[in-house]
Design goal:
Elements: H1 4-16, E1 24-27, E2 38-43, E3 49-53, E4 56-61, E5 64-68, E6 79-84, E7 90-94, E8 97-102, E9 105-111, E10 129-131, E11 137-141, E12 144-149, E13 152-155, E14 164-169, E15 175-179, E16 182-187, E17 190-194, E18 207-210, E19 216-219, E20 224-227, E21 235-236, E22 253-255, E23 261-265, E24 268-273, E25 276-280, E26 291-296, E27 302-306, E28 310-314, E29 320-323, E30 334-339, E31 344-349, E32 352-357, E33 362-365, H2 371-374, E34 377-382, E35 388-392, E36 397-401, E37 406-410, E38 417-422, E39 428-432, E40 435-440, E41 447-450, E42 461-466, E43 472-476, E44 479-484, E45 487-490, E46 502-508, E47 511-516, E48 521-527, E49 530-537, E50 547-552, E51 558-562, E52 565-569, E53 574-577, E54 588-595, E55 601-605, E56 608-612, E57 625-633, E58 640-647, E59 655-662, E60 669-671, E61 675-678, E62 684-694, E63 699-700, E64 704-710, H3 718-723, H4 725-780, H5 790-807, E65 810-818, H6 821-828, H7 830-847, E66 853-858, E67 861-867, H8 871-886, E68 890-892, E69 895-897, E70 901-909, H9 914-930, E71 936-938
Helix pairs in contact: 6-7, 7-8
Length: 943
């Protein structure tokens, strides 16, 4: 039973301490992701991650994105949604088309079987896809729900209430549809409406998801509901979910490997477990931006799309957690770690002690040691009686009895403390610069006694360790010592030229691993009292020569800490753990490692402490593959160009490649870039081979192979060789030698010129793309608010009016004016008024849907375009814009200012003229001002 004092400590940690931090890696424009508004994330059958944005489709290759657009067949680069079907094939939905990836091209799908045959399918924003059991695909489009089969689309029957927002084909064969303000279920060709009588509140159900256990989940802006397989009624599942759950209109749902449901909330990522939602947000390291998409890939990595801020990967999801000073750790430099129970762990850092509850993520300072705790505690141990020991480097030692939380302070030992160890016999050993001490329980209590033995030819000891078989080993300034039969024996190092100052030792399975004063690592095979063999372990086997800890866990695994992460050896294979896997920081601290009884490990660094819950997963089989992404070989006289990447690597940081061209070379060429280039090749059959190499995991993939044939030129054809050589044999011999020398010189010169020109063109292309993107932004964005400028918003309005006329769809055009804004300028000045305009623009953007457009109309007026807006939904949405300004005051120079706005709305359906629409919106705005401001007025009703 846990002692009462410990129970109280757990309770206090749960109530008042900060939470842990989770590691994330971000991907943006520096990784080739040209647009940061993520609308879709999927993984295809090959294992490639695809990202759809507002300005292109991108595929992740290594740690860089490759863009797909017009050259690959995509007529429109505004990607609304992505889907991978059961066959692993990629589907792309854009504003004016549905595309299917075939090879390296994208082919659009057209409507069939009606008078509009051949028309492109415009895919709606947030469009949903569903895979039917018959292999067909269902897609929500601008025409409604369509069924895609054989490269063409047909309208789906039976007809269900409109509008359709989402679709899901369940595993039991039924079809679920977000229809109207409810859900519809289609089975055996018949549909039924599920509304409030079945537990479905009135709403716009934008997201449907079926979990691994068969439970059906659905989301709208106000509710999250679930239908277990054995139930006939939905339940609202909102325990622990913040009231403000709409997350700016993003409703994505996913499931992690443990079967927990994940969804986006206004405060971060919400995770459902045991009937309760837990929200992970900015306090745990998540960026403070709305989550637009969630996706778990086949390696259980979690990917998050962030509104306007690119892509993020949750590194080591559900395995790694960390604590830094931001979460409450006393200092970023960690000296020692001690797990004292399945959930509680002491962490000693440079500025004091903390205790961490790994079950709740809570952390709290622990100051029971007083001044001894504020002086850096360098070593902590727990003896088998449950007592915790805190050892300062100066020699002060404190003992904590967990039964009554009583502390005992021992007289300081002489000399500098180098290490401490609790053995299996309930003793505490301390290695110091003045001797080796042991603390043994006795009738009169514990007393630290110095050890005296004839084998000791030094009083300076570095380390003390006990092997899995129970043997004791110690290292001193003169070498290595072994306790046998109650007596110590010094190990003869022989003629191995070893530095005897072994600062770190780890005895394991018949050998002793040592790290000397120069930080090298050696594995010593010892027979009797003599070293019989030495195996040096150096980079790249371990990450670095700067070794800071060398320890064994209860499994018999060896852990090596360096300034570039940690390496672990399970007796057969090495694996590396770095920031790419979820470690907080690569620069680890001296001796800051602890293996917990539950098999997890704790690692300290100069940035804080990390907890790895499942280190055994490091040795799970990895599907490392090399993939050739493009291959161009046009024939003799032209270069061979190949691009390639690696899939399935646990760590992209140390992913490299080696390649060769069989028929030309046998040796491998190594590179960290996914490209290879060969200049003009002689005729023949060749095989290009490439392998991916994961240095961190010591893995090499199977070779990806591409064959190529370079044909001989015409003058080496059969007829020529058999008819002409008889007449010109003598001359040919002379000309042949001259020609060969000339061609070699010419090829060498061309190769140099091509290489130089290729480099120039690549540089020019990169500069041109960057300049073009900058000019596009300058031409379309308002310099103050970064919203669309007047010219750009008018072009967008013309486009949406044309679309409304073409599709007979609906559109709301809104003019917004900040009330009494001249008074703000008069009171605070124009510079501070500009800041208020900027904040107003930001609030409108947060209130908008992903596909709404907002521009600065002029001065303090804004123009908002809201396509596809229903009248019932529109009234509520427009109130959201008005409340975006009034929800909380603006703060200018410390003074709170309450701003309001007036909105004039013009509804459009079908054909309309831009000037008439703006004029009617302006009249509605004038009416809103006339009626007292801070209100929404409408110029017309739906026609």
């Amino acid at each position: 039973m846990r002692p009462p004092a410990l129970l109280l400590l757990v309770f206090l940690l749960h109530l008042c301490a900060a939470a842990q931090r989770f590691p994330l890696a971000g991907y943006g424009q520096s990784n080739g992701l040209g647009n940061l508004n993520i609308n879709g994330i999927v993984e295809d059958g090959e294992g490639f991650l695809w990202v759809g944005t507002e300005n292109g489709l991108f595929r992740l290759e290594g740690d860089q994105f490759r863009r797909f657009g017009h050259d690959q067949g995509l007529a429109n680069e505004f990607v609304y949604s992505l889907h991978v079907d059961r066959a692993g094939q990629l589907w792309v939905g854009t504003d004016d088309g549905l595309y299917h990836k075939q090879g390296d091209r994208f082919v659009d799908v057209r409507e069939a079987g009606s008078e509009a045959a051949g028309r492109r399918l415009g895919v709606k924003p947030d469009a949903a896809f569903a895979d039917e059991k018959n292999g067909n695909l269902l897609v929500v489009t601008s025409m409604g729900l369509v069924e895609v089969s054989g490269g063409s689309a047909h309208r789906y029957a039976p007809a269900v209430p409109q509008p359709i927002r989402s679709v899901l084909a369940s595993r039991e064969g039924a079809l679920w549809i977000g229809c109207g303000d409810a859900l519809c279920r289609v089975a055996d060709g018949q549909w039924s409406r599920w509304g409030e009588e079945r537990g479905v509140p009135r709403g716009v159900w934008m997201e449907l998801f079926q979990a691994h256990d068969g439970t059906l989940w659905a989301r709208d802006g106000a509710h999250v509901i679930a239908l277990p397989e054995d139930r006939d009624r939905f339940h609202i599942e909102e325990t622990g979910l913040p009231a403000e759950r709409a997350n700016d209109g993003y409703f994505t749902i996913a499931e992690d490997a443990a079967g927990r449901i994940l969804t986006a909330s206004a405060h971060g990522l919400a995770r459902w477990q045991a009937g309760h939602w837990t929200v992970v947000g900015a306090a745990q390291g998540l960026p403070p931006y709305p989550i637009t998409m969630l996706r778990r890939d086949h390696e259980n990595r979690l990917w998050l799309g962030l509104a306007g801020h690119g892509l993020a990967q949750w590194l080591g999801y559900d395995q790694w957690e960390s604590w830094t000073p931001q979460e409450g750790l006393a200092s970023s430099s960690v000296w020692s770690i001690l797990p004292v129970s399945p959930t509680l762990t002491y962490v000693a850092s440079e500025q004091g002690l903390n205790i961490v509850n790994s079950a709740t993520g809570a952390i709290q300072s622990w100051d029971r040691l007083g001044a001894d705790g504020r002086e850096a505690v360098r070593f902590m141990q727990q003896t088998s009686d449950g007592h915790a020991w805190f050892v300062n480097r100066s020699g002060v030692i404190n003992e904590l009895d967990p039964a009554n939380q009583a502390l005992r302070r021992y007289p300081a030992l002489t000399g500098a403390i180098r290490n401490a160890m609790a053995d299996r016999e309930n003793r505490l050993w301390v290695a110091t610069s003045s001797g080796l001490y042991v603390n043994t329980p006795g009738p009169a209590g514990r007393v630290f006694q110095p050890l005296r033995d004839a084998a000791f030819d030094t009083n300076y000891f570095y380390d003390i360790a006990q092997s899995p078989s129970g043997e004791f080993w110690a290292s001193g300034r003169t070498g290595l010592f072994h306790l046998v039969g109650g007596h110590w024996h010094k190990i003869d190092l022989g003629a191995n030229h070893l530095d005897p100052r072994f600062e770190l030792i780890a005895p394991l399975a018949g050998s002793v691993w040592v790290s000397d004063y120069n930080h090298a690592i050696d594995r010593l095979r010892i027979v009797g009292d003599k070293v019989a063999g030495v195996e040096a372990v150096n980079p790249p086997v371990v990450a670095s020569e700067q070794v800071v800890f060398l320890r064994a866990d209860q499994r018999g695994w060896l852990w090596v800490g360096t300034d570039h992460g940690a390496d672990v050896f399970n007796g057969e294979n090495w694996r590396r753990v770095t920031q790419d896997n979820g470690l907080l920081w690569n620069d680890l601290d001296e001796r800051a490692f602890a293996a917990a009884p539950d098999g997890s490990v704790w690692i300290g660094s100069s940035a804080g402490v990390s907890h790895w819950r499942a280190p055994q997963d490091a040795f799970a089989p990895l599907d490392l593959r090399a993939v050739i992404t493009s291959f161009e070989a046009s024939g003799r006289g032209r270069p061979l160009l190949a691009s390639f990447t690696g899939l399935g690597a646990a760590s992209s940081e140390e992913l490299s490649y080696r390649y060769r061209l069989r028929g030309l070379e046998n040796d491998w060429t190594e590179t960290t870039h996914g490209e290879a280039r060969y200049a003009s090749l002689p005729p023949g059959h060749y095989q290009f081979e490439v392998e991916a190499v994961d240095g961190a995991q010591h893995l090499v993939s199977a070779a990806a192979v591409e064959s190529v044939l370079i044909n001989a030129p015409w003058w080496r054809s059969g007829p020529f060789e058999f008819t002409i050589p008889l007449l010109l044999f003598a001359l040919a011999l002379q000309l042949w030698g001259w020609r060969e020398r000339y061609l070699r010189r010419r090829a060498e010169g061309l190769e140099r010129l091509i290489a130089a020109r290729t480099e120039e063109l690549e540089t020019e292309k990169a500069e041109l793309l960057a300049a073009r993107e900058e000019l596009r932004i300058q031409a379309t964005r308002d310099s103050l608010t970064q919203l669309w400028n007047r010219r750009a918003i008018f072009e967008l309005l013309e486009t949406q009016l044309a679309r409304a006329a073409r599709e007979d769809s609906r559109l709301a055009v809104v003019l917004v004016d900040l009330d009494h804004f001249k008074a703000v300028n008069d009171r605070f000045g124009h510079l501070r008024g500009d800041r208020a305009l900027q904040e107003a623009g930001r609030r409108f953007v947060r209130a908008a849907r992903p596909y709404d457009s907002i521009g600065r109309y002029g001065g303090e007026e804004f123009l908002i375009i809201m396509p596809g807006l229903d009248h019932d939904d529109g009234v509520a949405r427009l109130e959201v814009f008005r409340r975006a300004l009034t929800r909380e005051p603006f703060v200018i120079d410390g003074a709170a200012l309450q701003l309001t706005c007036s909105l004039g709305v013009s509804w459009v359906r079908g054909a309309a003229v831009l000037e008439d629409v703006l004029d009617s919106a302006d009249r509605a705005l004038y009416l809103a001002k006339k009626l007292g401001r801070d209100r929404v007025e409408y110029a017309n009703a739906w026609r």
